[in-house]
Each structure stands twice: as structure tokens, then as C-alpha cells.
Amino acid sequence: MLVIENLHTYYGAIHALKGISLTVNDGEVVCLIGANGAGKSTLVNTISGLIHARSGKVVFQDKEITNLDAYKIVKMGLRLSPEGREVFPDLTVEDNLRLGAYVSTDKKQIEDAYARCYQLFPKLKERRRQQAGTLSGGEQQMLAIGRALMSEPKLLLLDEPSLGLAPNIVNQIFELIIEIQKQGVTILLIEQNANMALQVSNRAYVLENGTVGMEGKAKDIAADNRVRQIYLGLK
Questions:
Q1: pLDDT value at residue 235
Q2: Which DSSP helix (H) or strand (E) runs through 182?
Q3: Where do the structural domains in the chain lie, given as residue ranges?
């Protein structure tokens, strides 16, 4: 579904991504783990068109999307739930979700999307008339994911969904990721919580200083001694 080949991205003179290559197959959850500054969010923003690559290729469903405008990428079925949630605090929950379906003009399709979203996130239904800024951090994260799901994406990019959340809420978010995959959505998960990310993923890539340091089945990555020591805090 997603193929990245030898991707190089710069921030000014800083070489942030140094020849990244990876694949995400239909129906998978693939996670990217790595320390701060490893290039995880840069990669996500390059895939989604928010940052332009200097060289390399991004191919989505057999069509090259390298440096395509972000709104065109969204229309092709690739959606981002961004780091930090980025909800619109003065708009209601319902209006935030509606913005996620802006590519659709079919009223029934939009109503069906609301129904699916509220089934997945019952708390959002309870708070649909509330301003998003009054929600808890966990509820705002659910809203950000729900907004990205409103247009029925083929591939969902989740950038640091557990960031800043209490442990019990983190568990809920990862349970939801499993449920979203069961509903047929392919997921690329970018996450500092390596332990949880590896538990819910099929395959994993470890990013180190803008390069892929390791890749493989998530269970094999989780069992690697170096990963256990550096990223999982285990001996």
C-alpha cells in the first residue's frame, strides 16, 4: 500500500532523513520507534505532503505522491492524526469531526461516518455539543483520531497518539488502534512508547538519526537485546 524508497528530507541545512526506505502492506499495523530527533515526525510529515523531500520516492497505492500537495494526498485516502492532537478548541466535537469529512459531499456518507465514529468513541457522542477545548487530553486524542477516520482512509498515520496521556488512557488508545485495524484500516504508527507500539504492530522499523537502524516483525524487534535495553528499558 505504501512504499518509500531512499527518501531524503532537509530542514534548511539539516539532513533530517537520510535515505529512508520502508513498506506498509494492506491491513497491517506498522510502527516506527526511535528516540527524539530520530526523524519519525519528519517522515510522517514528508509522507503526508506537509514537508517536501529533496529526493527519493513516496508511492501510495501504486501512485507516486512525492511532494504532492497535502490536500491531494488526503483525497487519495491517506489521513494523518497529528502529534499534539491539533483539535480546534473553540469548535464543538461534532464540528471538529465534520472537518475531517470535508472531502465528502454525500450527506449519507457523512452521517454513516459519524455513526461509526461514535460507535468507536462513545465518549465523543456524549460530548458532541461540547467545545473541543473543554475535553480531557485522552478525549482530545480520541477526537483527533476520529476526525482522521471520518473520510474512511485507506491508510491512517498516527503520530504519537499516547503523548502526554495517563497510563490508563494510553491502554485505551492502543486498544482502539487494534479495533481500527480490525475494521480494515491500515495503520502507520509513530510512537515513543515502544513497548505498547510493538505489542499492537505486525512489523516495526527503528529509526536512528534519520536512517532505518533495524526492521522486522514486531515480536522479533521486541525480543532484540539492544532494543530491549535502549527503547524498552529492560535488561
A1: 58
A2: helix 167-182
A3: 2-87+154-230
**HSE of 230, CA atoms in CB hemisphere, 13 A:** 14
How far is residue 183's CA from residue 209's CA, in Å, rounded to a whole number?
A: 34
- Residue type for position 193: N
Contacts 24+ apart (CB under 8 A), 129-132: 129/92, 129/93, 129/94, 130/92, 130/93, 131/89, 131/90, 131/91, 131/92, 132/87, 132/88, 132/89, 132/90, 132/91, 132/92, 132/93, 132/96
Q: What is the pTM of this model?
A: 0.93
Containing H/E element for 20? strand 14-24
pLDDT digits 0-9 by tens, 98-107: 999 988 878 8
Q: Which helix (H) or strand (E) holds 5?
A: strand 2-11
116 CB-contact burial (10 Å; exposed 0-12 / middle 13-18 / buried 19+): middle
Superfamily holding 2-87+154-230 = P-loop containing nucleotide triphosphate hydrolases (3.40.50.300)
Q: Can you give the length of the chain in residues?
A: 235
